[in-house]
Amino acid sequence: MSALPDPEVDVGFDLIVVGAGFAGMYMLHKARGMGLRARVFEAGDGVGGTWYWNRYPGARCDVESMEYSYQFSNDLQQDWHWTERFAPQPEILRYANHVADRFDLRADIRFDTRVQSAQFDEPSARWTVRTDRGDVVTGQYLVMATGCLSSTNMPAFPGLGSFKGQSYHTGAWPHEPVDFTGKRVGVIGTGSSAIQSIPIIARQASELVVFQRTANYSVPAHNAPLDPDYEAEVKADYPAFRERNSQMMAAFGSRLQVPDRPALSATPEEHRQAFDKAWERGGLGFQRSFNDLMIDSRANEIAKSYVHERIRGIVKDQATADLLCPTQVLGCKRMCVDSGYFDTFNLPHVKLVDIRPKGIEAITPTGVRAAGQDFELDVIVYATGFDAMTGSLLKIDIRGRDGVMLADAWSAGPRTYLGLNVAGFPNLFTISGPGSPSVLTNMIVSIEQHVNWIGGCIDWMRANRRRSIEATPQAQEEWVGHVNAVASGTLYPGCNSWYLGANVPGKTRVFMPLLGFPPYVERCNQVAANGYEGFELRA
Ligand code: NA7
Asked: CA dist 271 to 105, 174, 205, 308, Å?
């Protein structure tokens, strides 16, 4: 690896971007195309964001590969070839690197550099950004492209750190493959990262103990090599395919032709047919089998019972099967997409431990104490998730107008206007910020929509000779109310999910993402068309 460059002192940037995942990379490309001078800071030594950090075995996107990619360059989307229906992490990381090379992005990214603080200076209307490597730079705009699932959640288990074996967090996995052969492995957590990695770890480990606090819903991926006919069909008219997806509530999955009807008006036979079809097809489309699953708890119960039946049909030991059947509302924690997760519990060396109600009692020098028992382990895998959506933003000392800290402005939970800006923080943009559809959509689509909107906004400001833009407190309050009202009309807020921040002790509970991509885009476009209504613009 080449030596790190000397710290930079530069007061001449138009734009400073934090993070070189898919959001930061496209923001940089966009800025360059607009003739802006941009600097990107990235904590990792490469691009890719979440796909750079989450290298755990089995890591894979739950949105299909033909959809989980950039659309800003038709040549790019035509040239790139995905090999599987759901792309695995190494391939997505190769794609991110390809984009960085193709558009020569690395020249403006400083890697291995973590932003520590960002301060708004009112007289100059500029942000000063400082990093852990001594860089001090200023820019008119600050774009936080820090990702929604980038700050790992490591619970403060008693004895954490005392363990003498190997420890890994799925969200900060080493670059070298980890060999579990012949090892006694414990996995803490049963979210998506655990559900993807457990079947693979089980193939190597001599013993695998899974510590479960909450059982999770998972549907099979039925992953397979990408069908060349399907690829050709999509590429024959990629823009139209993208357009159809942009009309979907979650900005993906338009090719799934599902009848738009409620479960409550269907017969048990029709339920079975629809769910069987969705289960056999695989993927997150299961949740769209009927249009009332996330609105009416009776409809949700029907889907829930079906999944229970499936789990009980796969897992031979009925006590284990019972434990694996989730009790919360289906879909209120993000559903998982797996390859052989439930089957793994039929293996004789795999054990499921219910850690309720006391949780993990301690990490000990030799393993894990839970459910009143000591488990001797060689490796502990923490699959305990993320401080989602706000974690990475709040780790940086961000100070807006009058030196107000973002952490203080958000002490009662995140508040934004459109998920793009925060009142009191002029010229700060949050890509896929709380209050925007973000994690409830195909992230790359949402990222591109945000970057395009920010680009359009900066263009407009230059053309109209404005130096600063900032949400009005009133527009922000109304927006926060809107996001809550939309969520409260559904079953989403009904369980302890990371959408609510409920997985992190002490985090204020606020339903952070906004449901519904198409109406959101319409609103963003309307705001722009009306001269950035809801924002205060200063000359
Ligand atoms: P998740 O989905 O947040 O899962 C984390 C898991 O870790 C979940 O089963 C948690 O149980 C468990 N957990 C968290 N804290 C604890 C403590 N203190 N004790 C025991 N168990 C704990 O994270 P993932 O990385 O799997 O997936 C995140 C997203 O990435 C996923 O939704 C996809 O969008 C991709 P809990 O449910 O809180 O009881």
From this structure: 49, 44, 39, 14
Region of residue 525 (phi > 0: left; psi between -120 and 50: alpha; otherwise: beta)? alpha
Exposure string for 223-256, b = 16+ CB within 10 A, e = fewer: beebeeeeeeebbeeeeebbeebbebbbbbbbbe
294-319 pLDDT, tens digit each: 999 999 999 999 999 999 999 999 99
Residue 2 is predicted with a pLDDT of: 54
Residues 245 and 209: their CA atoms lie apart, in Å, by 40
- Please name the residues in contact with 67: beta carbons below 8 A apart, sequence gap of 6 or more: 245, 252, 253, 442, 445
Going by their DSSP bridges, the two strands 184-188 and 379-382 should be labelled as parallel
Task: Report the half-sphere exposure of 339 (CA within 13 A, side-chain side).
Answer: 19
Nearest atom in ligand 1 to the alpha carbon of residue 213 is 39
Q: Measure the CA–CA gap between 458 and 528, rounded to whole angstroms.
A: 11
Closest Cα partner for 117 from 130, 101, 133?
A: 130
Count CA within 13 A, CB hemisphere, residue 536. Answer: 13
Q: Are strands 109-110 and 115-121 parallel, antiparallel or unpaired?
A: unpaired
- Ligand 1 neighbours, Cβ below 6 Å, are 149, 155, 170, 188-194, 213-214, 334, 359-360, 383-386, 496, 498, 503
Q: Which atom of ligand 1 is nearest to the CA of 54?
A: 25
Query: Mutate which of 68, 89, 193, 352 to test ligand 1's pocket (most atoms within 8 Å of Cβ)?
Result: 193
Q: Ligand 1 centre and the CA of 213: distance in Å?
A: 9
Largest pairwise CA distance in the chain: 70
Residue 221 in contact with residue 339, Cβ under 8 Å? yes
What is each CA distance from 70 to 40, 240, 398, 445, 502, in whole angstroms?
Answer: 19, 14, 29, 7, 31
Omega within 30 of 0 (cis) for the link into 123: no
What DSSP string runs through 412-451?
A: TS---BTTTB-TT-TTEEETT-TTSSGGGS-HHHHHHHHH
Give the Cα separation of 47 and 24 in Å (integer): 9
360 CA to centre of own chain: 26
Q: Which two tokens stand for residue 181?
A: 């052969």
Q: What are phi and psi of 486, to 5 degrees?
A: -65, -45
Distance 190 CA to ligand 1 centre (A): 6
Q: How many C-alpha atoms does 215 have within 13 Å on its Cβ side?
A: 21
**Three-state secondary structure string covering 311-339:** HHHHCCCHHHHHHHCCCCCCCCCCCEEEC
pTM: 0.97
The stretches in the chain having pLDDT less than 50 are 1
pLDDT score of 537:
97
Give the chain's radius of gyration (CA, Å): 23
Here the tokens at position 58 are 């089995």
